[in-house]
Amino acid sequence: MLARPPPGERRPHLPLRLKEQLDLCSQYPERVLFLDIETTGLSHHYDEITVIGWSIAGRASTIVKGDSHHRLREDARHALALVTFNGIRFDQRFIRQEFPDVAFPVHHIDLMYLCRRVGLTGGQKAIERELGLDLRGEIAEVDGFAAVLLWHRYLRGDVAALETLVRYNRADIAAMGAIFDHVVDRFQIEPDLFLQRSALREWAAPSGWMEIPPFPSARAELSSAPTFDQLLGGTPAEGVRVVGIDLTGSEARGSGWCLLEGKKASFKTVLTDADLLELTLSSKPDLVSIDSPLCLPAGRVSVEDSDPGRARFGIMRECERELKRRGVNVYPCLLPSMQKLTARGIRLATSLRRLGVPVIESYPGAAQDIMRIPRKGAGIEWLKLGLADFGVIGDLAVASHDELDAITSALVGSFHLSGLVEAMGTPEEPPLIIPKLDGKAHPIIIGISGPIAAGKTTVAQSLEKLGFAYTRFSLVIDEELKSRGMPLDRHHRQALGDEINRTGRQRWLAEQTLSRVGDASAIVVDGLRFPEDHAFLAERAGGSFLHVFVDADENTRRQRYALRPADGDFDAASASDVEGQVQTLRSLADIVFPNVGSKDDISPFAMNLAAQTRAKTCQSRS
Fold this sequence. Notes:
The chain is of the alpha/beta class. It is 43% helix and 16% strand. The protein contains 26 helices and 17 strands. A seven-stranded mixed sheet has the order 8-7-6-9-10-12-11, sandwiched between helices. Strands 3-2-1-4-5 form a five-stranded mixed sheet, with helices on both faces. Helix 15 packs across helix 17 and helix 19 packs across helix 21 (506-515). It starts with 15 loop residues before the first helix and ends with a helix.
């Protein structure tokens, strides 16, 4: 019989649909499928199912990753109702993604929402405690974090860990039946629906529900996590220097810093911005990877809540919204607690880029997924073990958590240089870099710099004849001059170029220049003049970027310039502020081409350059 409510207690009323579902479960308890899954994490995009457990028709069943899901498919097909806890948002989504041929019944009772109707809130274990349920015994202390670690222990040979994980999963299912009974008792249900109600607990926890069959050792395809050599061997990542920084919001709290030379990691904790800059620059990195927001949401001009665009543009970037959609718990970059970190990250990245050092915003958590390392919060020893298994060389035993995250951030840079990434961003918001083994390959980009009349455009146009899409900075400047109604001559181009640089819009200019060639796979960019141009193109192309500095002695350049009477005086043009940093690009270039011969000498150089760049890119994609 249904339990009577205590005197004076008000009961929630059920909508007709839910009444019918509960009635269905009562009439056919043997066809109610209680289901729960265990995963490597919370993101349906990055994580995967490890264990699926279910009870139906007086049977408790379990499959482990790598097992056939035939039994689950058949039981789901015969079920009339599905019962889960948070299964609408979590379990069902994971199963549909990994096993799309499993068709669950139309009627899905998610106990999390059902409990809320009667004032029971929180997670399943919290509700069990409130109801006085005690079904877990010796595994009472196992929780979601522990479940992830149990799986990783099993992958490393601990079969008992898998047995504990399965018991934890079955205890979740058994408790669902008991919760179901308690919650239904709290509803006011008309007597004519059913007077005798089956106890669903007996069906969720059938006889022998805790009898766990013996499991074999982890299969090779499950336990063999990928290594550096397997993923990044033979790519640019083997021979580069990447600095990774796990940045904090305050100089008072140390930031993790790492220099990764191929697989060799050296690391330390650094306090001030000045020390971070000095240490990073002295390491002469090919790339810097920072675990921190490095830009504002499009439309915002400051991190403070007083920003006039606060109400309109919000506190979250598109990359953060996308991570949320993928089930990743990420903080908005301008949440009050994140504002100092975001401001610090932008300052640090800007300082490095102005010196020609390419910088990316990294997401270490995704790299840890690829390396099959439990994410942050699971425990520092697992990070150390996972990084060592991946192949990182260094004294990881003494590394702090922040230093381990800095190593992982540097590895994201290695993935980026090898083209194994996804860039999450918009034209207005520089991308967040996510490791992705089937990521879209970076385009080949050759950047051409050099002093006036050295022959930059001639080299660039020779590459254009070889199939490279051609673009140059002055084309964007000309468009801006036209919009202002100004002459298209060298004087006005240089003046506008200087204005753009002084007002902090150099990356905008580089973005506009690159956007002119769309999705071309091989690009030559003519007219780099600032170290920031080098940094921008290196960030976009990763290991597929090659910087060529075209040079010639002054007398040769004067003679060539004299053949361009419309360009004015050579000395005045060379002394322009916009030409003031050109020589600094020489030290950033991969190749210095002394263009002192005739135009006929340029064609063979361009052909060799094109072949060299394409070979380098094929190496990074192999």
